[in-house]
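Question (not urgent): is this output format expected?
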Amino acid sequence: MKTLSWAHLRALGRADNGGRWYPREDIAPYFSDLRAPSRAWPNSYAKAAQTLKFARWLRVNHSALADQLGLV
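Got this back:
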């Protein structure tokens, strides 16, 4: 299994004017216990989304979406 790139993240969420990345609503529950992005830590959610743990979670909980992203 592979991890997600920044190109994948653009399909899974949005960035605001401050460069903070936020996930779409259907995958947001994964990030509920993580530090929210701030100006000091704009990539807190994005870095968590680029882990193997998240790729596995996505495969189990949103398999169709994982297939679209090419996660095997």
